[in-house]
Amino acid sequence: MHSRTALLRLLIAVALITAACSGSDDTTTDTTTAQTSAPTTEAPQNTTTSLAETPPPTSEPSAADQILAEAIDLVGDSYLFTSEVTVNGEIASTASGRNVGDAAELQLSQQATTLTYRSIGEMRWVQSSEDADWVQLEDSEESASPLSGLAQPTELLVISDDGSTVELLGTYDPAVLSLDTTGLLEVSLTIEDGVLASLDFSDEIGGGQIALRATFTPQDDLDPIVAP
Fold first, then answer.
1. What are the backbone angles phi and psi of residue 42, rounded to the nearest 5°?
2. Which SS3 state, helix, strand or coil, does residue 159 take?
3. Are the C-beta atoms of 117 and 49 separated by less than 8 Å?
4. What is the reported pTM?
5. Cβ of 105: how many Cβ atoms within 10 Å?
6. pLDDT tens across 133-179, in order?
7. Measured at the alpha carbon of residue 169, what is the angle toward residues 167 and 170, in degrees to the nearest 5?
8. Which domains does the chain show, CATH number per domain?
């Protein structure tokens, strides 16, 4: 994939912003993370042992990592997506859109307002209504593929696998998702028939329970997204 949109960052950022607007100024994050250390190997004491007899250490991806990498790959860079953010169980915002190559467009609805965002390469625009002019955002920047960060968890567990649906739980450093937040994030990932189908993220922020669910549907015949 060669997509250069900030889709995933925007979806999760929307969730965080919505939570902040719905709660107090105090933000509490309580995350318990299992830490593992790579086993250490002492140097052989027999000085006659050659380097060829000592295999170099390997770091092969786990089965869960391989499943996730292949699932993201199969989504490709042409797909439809939706998201829903809830605060304390109440729907706070919804979004839907499409990603085509290095461009994306989404409509974000929050309360009585609907905004349309469009990004192509490094450029981004927003439209406040169908009749309004497009406004270019000044903080436009080049960013990584919207799904590439999901392939870089610090820890990934297979929760269930029934042969067609796989449930994974990933722990992420916010930096790999292009988020400027503290504390590790736990994201639930659902893979259906080998393809990444959805993700779920939840946390307690500002005294309220924030939750984000996003879905992805590969589709090859989407119209190109052009600059406004």
1. -75, 150
2. strand
3. no
4. 0.72
5. 22
6. 999 988 655 544 557 788 899 999 999 999 999 999 999 988 887 66
7. 135
8. 7-23+62-218 (2.50.20.20)
